[in-house]
From TrEMBL:
Keywords: Metal-binding, Transferase, Zinc. PANTHER family: 3-KETO-5-AMINOHEXANOATE CLEAVAGE ENZYME (PTHR37418:SF2), 3-KETO-5-AMINOHEXANOATE CLEAVAGE ENZYME-RELATED (PTHR37418). It comes from Streptomyces davaonensis (strain DSM 101723 / JCM 4913 / KCC S-0913 / 768). This is Transposase. Transmembrane segments: none annotated. It holds the Pfam family BKACE. Its cofactor is Zn(2+). The keyword Transferase applies.
């Protein structure tokens, strides 16, 4: 992204889109004070986050026994109720479905490709499904400390090892088919990227014409194979993202607020919720709603407006697709592909 001299002025920045993740699939009941269990509680969590200022909802579903649900019928039920309860929110299904271990000593696994592909067939369809690109380690506890995990199920050795050894399976066999299915059903992919190598893979998908739509990204700074918390890495990722992309910053535990404060100042968007963080300060719990409210306060203190639901849908360009790679590159503000025999650096066409 290019920053002009006036790019940090809030009146020149897009309104802030707050993504809420209040369903904490890695946690068990009792780990957080606001984990929804019943379907009514799932819906109420969405309503509360929306009323606090969130306009994008990152969705997982929990069974009554507290474990993450793998049943598409439950996703369908929740989506139907959310369409009525929070019609202005962008509904985003978490593409991992449920990566929580089934019990102590079990592995924390993402589900098989066939099951994850079923997210493209949900009814009613979500606005977005998150998608991982390239298989990588996802050791979510690597940069967590004892204070982060105090009093939670992940503090138990067996659960800790389950998350320490977790791997995201997302090779070409998965993402090529998944992108095709999402496109066929009018669902926007929301790319969850761990580092620049994955961003480069997405760029190659665009340049080859495999993906022809808006570029909606999360920079996932959770460590353990994903990005870490170094501010220079965050700024470099922002610098490498095309001007026409939409970028949300996602971090973990007490780093969420400072990482998001940088994101807000730089005109990017933010994600909060108990899936990412449980704490306001050391030893002080913080609900998903309170985290949304904190982002509103930071943004308002800087003079940056908060996006409404209609704003979020416009910013995300839901339902928009492009004819080919050339149009996609132009829409995203990227330089065109090299033509046969063309030498030197690429320039945008004058008409574009």
């Amino acid at each position: 992204m290019h920053f002009h001299d006036d790019s940090l002025f809030p009146e020149n920045q897009e309104k802030l889109v707050i993504q809420a993740a209040p369903y904490g699939p890695e946690w068990l009941p009792g780990d957080a004070d606001d984990l929804p269990l019943t379907m009514d509680e799932h819906v109420q969590a969405a309503v509360d986050c929306y009323n606090a200022g969130a306009t994008v909802l990152h969705i997982h579903v929990r069974e009554l026994d507290g474990k993450g649900s793998k049943r598409m019928s439950m996703f369908n039920e929740l989506l139907g109720r959310l369409r009525e309860a929070v019609p202005d929110m962008v509904l985003q299904i978490g593409g991992s479905i449920s990566f929580a271990p089934e019990g102590e000593g079990g592995d924390a696994k993402w589900l098989a490709y066939d099951t994850r592909h079923l997210l493209a067939d949900l009814t009613p369809a979500p606005d977005q499904v998150t998608i991982a690109i390239n298989t990588s380690q996802m050791n979510i506890v690597e940069i967590m400390n004892d204070d982060d995990l105090e009093g939670t199920s992940i503090a138990k050795p067996d659960y800790y090892r389950a998350y320490r050894d977790m791997v995201v399976e997302a090779g070409p066999e998965f993402y090529l088919e998944h992108l095709q299915r999402l496109h066929a059903n009018g669902i926007q992919p929301h790319f969850q990227l761990a580092h620049l190598a994955q961003l480069e893979t997405v760029e190659r998908l665009i340049r080859s014409g495999v993906y022809t739509g808006p570029l909606i990204l999360n920079y996932v700074a959770i460590g353990g194979g994903f990005a870490g918390r170094h501010p220079a890495d965050l700024v470099e990722f922002i610098r490498r993202v095309p001007d026409g992309a939409v970028l949300t910053i996602e971090s973990s535990m007490r780093a969420v607020a400072p990482m998001n404060a940088v994101a807000i100042a730089l005109g990017q968007h933010v994600r909060v919720g108990n899936e990412d963080n449980l704490w306001r300060a050391k030893g002080e719990r913080m609900s998903s709603v309170a985290q949304v409210e904190q982002m509103v306060q930071i943004s308002e203190a800087l003079g940056r407006d908060i996006a409404t639901g209609a704003d979020a849908k416009r910013i995300y360009r839901l339902g928009e697709y492009y004819s080919d790679a050339d149009e996609t590159l132009a829409r995203l503000g990227m330089v065109p592909n090299r033509r046969p025999g063309q030498r030197g650096f690429m320039l945008r066409d004058a008409q574009a």
